[in-house]
Amino acid sequence: MRRAVLWILTFTFLITGLAAHPHVFIEHTVEIQVNDSGVHALKLRWVFDEMFSSMLIQDFDTNKNKKIDPSENPVVKKNGFDNLLEYHYFVFMKMGGKSFYPSRAGDFQASIANNRLVYSFTVPVTLKTGGFPAKAELVIKDPSNYADLTLIKGNPVTVLNTGSLKISHRVVDNRAQFRRTGEGYPEIMLIELRK
Questions:
Q1: In degrees, to the nearest 5, what angle opens at C-alpha 20 toward C-alphas 78 and 121?
Q2: DSSP strand pairing (147-151 vs 116-124)
Q3: Which tens digit of pLDDT belongs to each residue from 138-153?
Q4: End-to-end alpha-carbon separation of the chain, Å?
Q5: Helix axes 73-80, 50-60, angle to 10 degrees
Q6: pTM
Q7: Residue 140 burial by CB count (10 A; 0-12/13-18/19+): exposed, middle or buried?
Q8: What DSSP designation does 52 have?
């Protein structure tokens, strides 16, 4: 446990701007949750790289059964997730000229899959659409570049639509330009909502 706290403190310390290149690699998915009012939540799933995972699993999987048990999940949340609120969970969204930075997350669940630590959580979206059609940009990125968040290959962005709105989305891949210039965002999810 002591080592996990040290890793999280190091992660938090370096994320404040001392890092010039990524030290933690996260592959992620996004489920865009939509109702008749627009986007109301984002369900995120992060899969950490093997090295970072192995260190945290060693400390958080206290009974060494290769899974995060219900008694271990609150410890992971407190020591390895709650501090990310300060960074808005690396979520940045813009719609209608207004920016959205999450102020809370729910449904946190840590797990282990293929020896990698996985975080699943939901971020409520309070950004109002201001009418339809509406366009939004969504970016999942650590602005300090300590953690490199990349959409998984395949089908990384899905939609759960419980309303009658029509939604389309696409991912703009700017990774090559971002690596070359360090400007902009490596991946941008463009979302369009219509009645």
A1: 30
A2: unpaired
A3: 999 988 888 889 999 9
A4: 51
A5: 120
A6: 0.85
A7: buried
A8: H
